[in-house]
Amino acid sequence: MIEVRWHGRGGQGAFTAARLLGQAVAIHEHKYVQAFPSFGPERRGAPVLAFTRIDDKKITDRSEVETCDYVVVLDDTLYGENVTKGLKDGGVLVINTTKEASAFPKVGDYQVITIDATALALDILGRPITNVPMLAALAAASDNVSVDSVLAAIDDQLAPRICEKNKKLFVAAYNAVKGDK
């Protein structure tokens, strides 16, 4: 089973990213998926968590993801011990930041990938919405979901008026991370 934990702030779309990943894998790649949020105080800007599980067989565990293969951070100000806690050795931490990966001290044997998803989103969407480029960064880092599956999920899940820009944003972020690997 592949487990992903998403760290974001209310309004950034962490749960939307988890759900898009789930849609892409379940509908377009025919695997079993869970995608669910964990909210504290439900207000814009408050820290939120979202989770995605992917497996070839039915998933019966309904608890929050405690140990994970991937951690995606939509806002680098959230980085801390709670972000890296439970990240498996050999896992990947993907952070939206202007900083280099070396700026994030490691407490385990995992890879750190950084991307300035905010700049990409501002350039393409005109708004600092980082969920789609962070999903792209995860897809590029993990090779657990195809580009075509995610682009189809964007068409399935997002409003038609924002699909094309989000697909362009996804491809730009995906290529940015693939070029850095």
Automatic annotation (TrEMBL):
The domain of life for this entry's organism is: Bacteria
The signal sequence is none
Q: What Pfam families does UniProt report for this protein, alphabetically? A: POR
Give start and end of each Pyruvate/ketoisovalerate oxidoreductase catalytic domain. 10-174
Q: What keywords tag this UniProt record?
A: Oxidoreductase
Q: What residue intervals traverse the membrane? A: none
User: Is-annotated flag, keyword Translocase?
Assistant: no
Specify the protein name: 2-oxoacid:acceptor oxidoreductase family protein
Source organism per entry reads Megasphaera hexanoica
